[in-house]
């Protein structure tokens, strides 16, 4: 299954589950080599995709997939067999439906393989995570228990990649509970989205969803769009908005609401997502407290944070609707247990004060069966004396007295500087993402150096305005490479780092040098995953020349 999020994807998945055919999923943004590797490793015989992906990405690699016999494309157009390998049959989904033969339902057993989900991962080759039917049921049972009143009155807007465990389990849950699903895309979500014609309505406005899942990157984008609109208001409007925002924020922190502010100030903002959203769920990466509070205030709905991995079928923790704290990911779901394992080298142990900290291990029936054809390379999975499967996440967590978890670090994100201080790159990025001049940031440190550097995708509108004020004119690329603009962004970074209340950065954690990237990082560029997590290895290789420059080399 290699196609974007659409109804045909879910119809195909349900058909495979019903007939007990294992479903193999790939992100539409995976590179050609990675897709060829996965198709061959899993021995795929039938491929379902879109014409666009078939023509642009798959056609060139099909001769390398000897076991593939049938390709089904989900669009209405007809595809000519010319240029495709001999012996490969091409069908439209309509043609498959017209064939009409319906084999007997092969009811799957709980232990049968349901999905091999290839993750782009933040490092190396894609890995196929083996998810059995009982893993799916366990994971979704845990997730749905945290969404009160889930049922036929709900409408869910689907736009995240369906080959991602968060979206796949969310949509199967909607089908189970009788919720409506409306299919969208990140480029058509709101009236202001890039592929919506001026004056036309976005998908949220038309569909008016009640439930929505989002990755922090999308929420950060919504936050910045709304706040830039606020800056364009008249002085009086802007002052009213700011006063109302601060007042409602105080009320939310106390566990109350502000109905008058909702009616007078936030009704218009709420309509950006259709006006009916009653709950949003964020997953895939840490959500900054600033963005979480912004969504609470302006969209008048709770924002739940979830924590889970493909390896745990998307389930781990989700915050309760009544939990008004920020930065935490909630308590364990009913389908699993969580324990912390000391990581003395990184300075995280169960004896830490005020709360125990350590590597997060997730155990339970939602923990998947390991990686496809891993040849014993599944050292992150283990079975305990009671027969329960566990997965070692590599994330560092802190457990609060009320049983809620906060992710505070990641083993792979920790770098030891020359003088012996540990720097958490993820923490640095989370603190600095709140800077108005920054759309995206990657912190980097070398163990043989004593300072941190960073690559930044700047906000084009704001940086261009600052450049004009300084008399710097030119193309976007020329503005980004101008030394003065690097100094401006660095100054802003230092100011945000010093004043950040949510993340206390030490002096040695604040980036000393910066490179401004004129190109945004998207899954298509291969520099971030489909959930917009940074691919550190790829980013390092991409900016190697600039790393050498910033560390005093060439």
TrEMBL record:
<protein>
    <recommendedName>
        <fullName>long-chain-fatty-acid--CoA ligase</fullName>
        <ecNumber>6.2.1.3</ecNumber>
    </recommendedName>
</protein>
<dbReference type="InterPro" id="IPR042099">
    <property type="entry name" value="ANL_N_sf"/>
</dbReference>
<dbReference type="GO" id="GO:0035336">
    <property type="term" value="P:long-chain fatty-acyl-CoA metabolic process"/>
</dbReference>
<dbReference type="GO" id="GO:0030182">
    <property type="term" value="P:neuron differentiation"/>
</dbReference>
<dbReference type="GO" id="GO:0005783">
    <property type="term" value="C:endoplasmic reticulum"/>
</dbReference>
<keyword id="KW-0443">Lipid metabolism</keyword>
<dbReference type="Pfam" id="PF00501">
    <property type="entry name" value="AMP-binding"/>
</dbReference>
<dbReference type="GO" id="GO:0005886">
    <property type="term" value="C:plasma membrane"/>
</dbReference>
<dbReference type="GO" id="GO:0005811">
    <property type="term" value="C:lipid droplet"/>
</dbReference>
<keyword id="KW-0436">Ligase</keyword>
<keyword id="KW-0276">Fatty acid metabolism</keyword>
<dbReference type="InterPro" id="IPR020845">
    <property type="entry name" value="AMP-binding_CS"/>
</dbReference>
<dbReference type="GO" id="GO:0047676">
    <property type="term" value="F:arachidonate-CoA ligase activity"/>
</dbReference>
<feature type="domain" description="AMP-dependent synthetase/ligase">
    <location>
        <begin position="5"/>
        <end position="372"/>
    </location>
</feature>
<dbReference type="InterPro" id="IPR020459">
    <property type="entry name" value="AMP-binding"/>
</dbReference>
<dbReference type="InterPro" id="IPR000873">
    <property type="entry name" value="AMP-dep_synth/lig_dom"/>
</dbReference>
